[in-house]
Predict the 3D structure of the following.
Amino acid sequence: MNAALKLAKEYRTAIIIVIVAVILIVLVKKLKKTKEDQLLEAENKSYITAIQNKVDKNDLSYDGTEYRDMADQLFEAFNGPGTNDKLWREVFNRMKTDADVNQLIVAFGSRKPTTGGFSFGRKAETLAQWIAGDLSANQRKELNNMLVSKGITKTF
């Protein structure tokens, strides 16, 4: 019986060491932003700022709150497993000008997936990146045709 207790104590210590090591590794990875992450974040911020500078405020069809609501709807449409095709089409059907599309991109900003099995390890992405990742080539063509038919030159 003493041998069994001694063996159990040895395994318990090893298991505790492994658990602590795994927790430390996860914490270090979570707390440490890699250089690549920082560059991607800066790139996204620069892209959004450049788009923001293109927005002609006199050509906007909606107020800021509506653009944020539409951006949230697009995030809902793209986030998680599957894509809500009806929702993204409804949002883009509301676009009337290049300024609208650009303001929507700014309102969307850079967002990280929050649900779904494929969100682990994904970085924050701009609207254009979400569209490229979630819509098929045919869907992107449909989206771009929808925008061009309204005289909008900003496409994805």
